[in-house]
Amino acid sequence: MKLKRTLSIIKPDAIQAKFQGKILDFLEDKGFNILAQKRIKLTKSQAEAFYEIHRDKPFFNELIEFMISGEISVQVLEAEDAISYYRTVMGNTDPNEADEGTIRKLYGTNIQCNAVHGSDSEENANNE
Ligand code: ATP
Ligand code: MG
């Protein structure tokens, strides 16, 4: 099967907690190739554009404040069926609902501070 790419973000909570190294090790153990990586701090307008789809949600403002609260680490990951595979490896949005052995179960705190982002479609992966 052809290798595909997805976009991953290690969010401010996990960077702050110094989980970056553990998460990257975990991704390589799960078979991902880390093709590119950059540590950045989003501006408010970048974060709003990134999560534009959630603009009308009650948690939008809180989500933006969280995403700009500190640095993030962005990765381009490669694997077979990378997008859906990474969604499985990340686990449920809410760490309390996530399966054992998923990144969010291991390193997430709550439904907002859930350690990582992963693209949810090929179109979004390319855009992101
Ligand atoms: P992501 O898009 O970050 O990969 P996801 O696709 O699992 O996560 P979405 O529904 O797209 O989940 O929500 C985007 C992000 O918004 C979540 O990862 C989380 O940080 C935050 N979020 C989602 N639901 C809530 C909520 N009910 N309360 C607070 N924050 C939330
Ligand atoms: Mg999403």
Describe this structure in words.
The chain is α+β, with helices and mostly antiparallel strands. It has helices at residues 12-16, 20-29, 44-50, 60-67, 82-90, 103-107, 122-127, and strands at residues 3-10, 33-40, 72-80, 116-118. Strands 2-3-1-4 form a four-stranded antiparallel β-sheet. The two termini are 23 Å apart. Adenosine-5'-triphosphate (ATP) binds next to β4.
Helix content: 25-40%
* Low-confidence runs: none
- Average predicted confidence as pLDDT: 97
Strand content: 15-25%
Anisotropy-based shape = globular
How large is the count of helical segments? 7
Q: Report the span from N to C terminus.
A: 23 Å
The value of Rg in angstroms is 14 Å
Key phrases:
binds magnesium ion, 4 strands, 39% helix, alpha+beta, binds adenosine-5'-triphosphate, four-stranded antiparallel sheet, 128 residues
Short description:
This protein is α+β, with helices and mostly antiparallel strands.
How would the blueprint of this fold be written?
Blueprint: E1 3-10, H1 12-16, H2 20-29, E2 33-40, H3 44-50, H4 60-67, E3 72-80, H5 82-90, H6 103-107, E4 116-118, H7 122-127
Antiparallel strand pairs: 1-3, 1-4, 2-3
This protein binds adenosine-5'-triphosphate (ATP) and magnesium ion.
Adenosine-5'-triphosphate (ATP) binds at residues 54, 59, 63, 93, 111-112, 114, 117-118, 120.
